[in-house]
Amino acid sequence: MSAISLDPRFNHHPAVANKNHHQQGAAAATATATAEEIEGLIRVSKDGHVERPAIIPNVPCTWSLDQNLVTSKDVFIDKLTNLWARIYVPSNYHPIHDESLPLLVYFHGGGFCVGSAAWSCYHQFLANLAAKAGCVVVSVNYRLAPENRLPTAYEEGFNAVMWIKQQAMNPSNENKSWLSKCNMSSLFLAGDSAGANIAYHVSTRLAANSDAVLRPLRLKGLVLIQPFFGGETRTASEKYANQPPNSALTLSASDTYWRLSLPSGSSRDHPWCNPLAGGSAKLRELRVPATMVCVSETDILRDRNLEFCNALVSAGKKVETTMYRGVGHAFQVLHNSQSSQARTQEMMSHIKSFINQ
Q1: Quick one: which of 49, 15, 3, 52 has its CA closest to 30?
Q2: What is the largest CA-CA distance in the chain?
Q3: What are 150-195's pLDDT values in tens digits?
Q4: Active site residue 193
Q5: Which of 152, 173, 216, 302 has the fewest CB atoms within 10 Å around its CB?
């Protein structure tokens, strides 16, 4: 199978590389029937060829940054798998006078099938979040489905956290600067949509081990923004929520993402898709840290997100649920309306309070 695979530190411009690859791939696939498609985002041919149009540009780590507010750099985690991360550090941090900063490991959304830590919308959002919430952000670029179906994204999320642990214990010269600013006892896993799903499942894997597995890191909480979960039984918001034509997530797109990302032949009640499929009693056994869940009012995932929150509360977990009125899925990265911008500022303020409590 072929796919676009880009590291933004390569000398060529990512957007140009995406365009050229797409044109070549499109020419090669014109005679091949389509097996799955989400228009404008991904097309999978029956012969396994994968196209991802460059609908959102990839940008370098220094793109459009106010150096007085935040600095950013890209680092390799595993060169063999091309696992890398983009790190954002607030510029106004002074180690002599200030306390060390919370460390937020972030996973981007995209239904496990599209997206990148180099996408301009994530670059902008996370740079602003680091500056306004006062935290170091490590934005992980994991491999995508269907070429790399789940649990690849979970494995790479876990490996990214273990890499940070190793660096914290024995930092390389390349990473000493940003690591010195981090409070290793204040680690948070975060993400939006599929990235929130990854953050949740990585946390359950970490929690299944002893605390020594993470030490000197300590997982303090989760920030789950519109977590991408599913199930065979439709919720009311999945069936009846009116979605605009440019909605970031429709029901048909959701179903396609799950068909492309779950192990072949799995239903949407697979535990990676539906964490409640085994019953809420199962959640009582999990060591889930304090969890903040951000829900969007007009998102098709609204009711599923609320069911998840209620199940966690019933299982005795600490959960903070916030509803963002009048906005839909991925509003914080994909929509520029005045109301979306206002809700995004509210979200950043809520995240700041959660990670500093």
Answers
A1: 49
A2: 64
A3: 999 999 999 999 999 999 999 999 999 999 999 999 999 999 999 9
A4: yes
A5: 173
